[in-house]
Amino acid sequence: MQRRLPIGISDFKEIVERDYAYIDKTLLIQEIYEHGTKVILMPRPRRFGKTLNLSMLRYFFEKSAVDHSHLFINFNIWKQEKYKGLQGQFPLIFLSLKEMKDADWETAYGKLKLLISDEFARHYYLLENPELLPREKLDFQEIIDRIASQAIYENSLKMLSKLLSQYHKRNVMILIDEYDTPVISSYLNNYYDPMMNFMRNWLTAALKDNSFLEQGIMTGILRVAKESFFSGLNNLSTFTILNETFSSQFGLLEKEVISLLAEFDLMDCLEEMRKWYNGYRIGSKTLYNPWSILQCIYNKGQLQPYWVNTSENELLKQLIIQGGEDLKIELEQILLGQELEKPFEESLSFESLAKGNSEAIWNILLFSGYLTPSGPATYKGIPKCSLKIPNLEIASLYNSIIREWFTASIQARNFDLLLSSLITGNMETFISLFEDFLESAMSYYDIGLEEPEKIYHAFILGMLISLRDTHEVKSNRESGYGRYDVMLIPKDHDALGNIFEFKKIRAQEGKDLNSGALSALQQIEDKNYKHELQERGIRKILCLGLAFQGKKVMIKYK
Fold it and tell me: Domains in the chain, ordered, with CATH?
């Protein structure tokens, strides 16, 4: 009998007791405990099972009035005899910051106080301890009542760990889910400084030189730089997507996806689902996005972007829109299937991001799952790795963002008409719309750069990327006796193919737009750029010579 799918459920107890489909990741318990590191940070992309894994760790380790050992009997960890004795043995603090997405510091701080208050209230029995000092009782009650000073809240995790350890006579596990969500939100909403100050003081107090700490375990998306966040926290070990440790415990391996597809009679969908949702390289392993797999199975194999529709892509959009010209150009190259080698740092400084550091932007795209390494990172000299888009789902997100850029300057209906007139050869309509489009949309790029041809090239590529479902878009490839600028290759070989050649007109050279466009068109003919299309069996070919001067354009075609 098919199990139910745990859509939107991340509580391990509920999933097991109500017999939802679950892929066994319980050996993460063994891996973490045997690793022996005092504080572990495991950054992973969104929707990769972080909250569920932390919930599983909580039910395994936490000392509770309710016995939770039955939750693990049928899973791999219970086959490890020595770990049975660890189940339910540790006092534990659990906090999830995943909903900390507030518009201002006052609201965010209020929510932090509420989360801390709720966790203290969960351990209200500690007030019965006769060893508590009057000052500790007062601070405890003020935290629950949400009237304590900020200094007391900043010390609250350390305080609670001390009181738990004294009561239970055992050191404390501290689990924090999505630790960086409030930091990212504060960056997006301009209250970064007060949030960083609070988080730095709060977590450092709890995790640095805390004699009551057994182990601290945190998940998030990004590793915030030590110097700005975990200053002096020398006992922290971080295991990112570039590390082998814990690599198979977040996300789904193909064999795990196959087991789910077999259970739900969807094995015929595997090949297409691989194109859409696989491709995330973590350590040496390639994994699927579990959120999208569950959604796709729930929808009987319907392929569509599930992960990117979670309305949590604001940071990506802001970074790309505010990014420089080189970033836009290079992203468009990646969208065309090219790989880019980029230096990386496994930690992120939001200060450098605020200064427009393009390398910091590439870091975020990599560690957030919007790009993935195509192979192992190299650490000779400056650490580098080659980046690519992992799958069709993520490609669709970039397509939608690029479309937003363009349709902000031209009505969506006219943008669609612009593209359809191009691929059907209705050049009168295409030229009219394109001239208007160029005038309004070119402000997105800086046409005063030293290499303006690159900007026009990127502009055309960005426009054509929306056609990737029906056409292959290529640029700067050899064909015939030279390199064409852009080629639009229809997947239907009976349809029209397009070749673009660009000329930038400089007034000081004495040329005009008309002669420049004719020269570009002649170059397509002279260098036999049609050769690649003809080799593919495409006989209907439209050649376009485009001459640009500022925001003016002349198009000749044949």
Answer: 12-238 (3.40.50), 254-299 (no CATH), 313-394 (no CATH), 445-557 (3.40.1350)
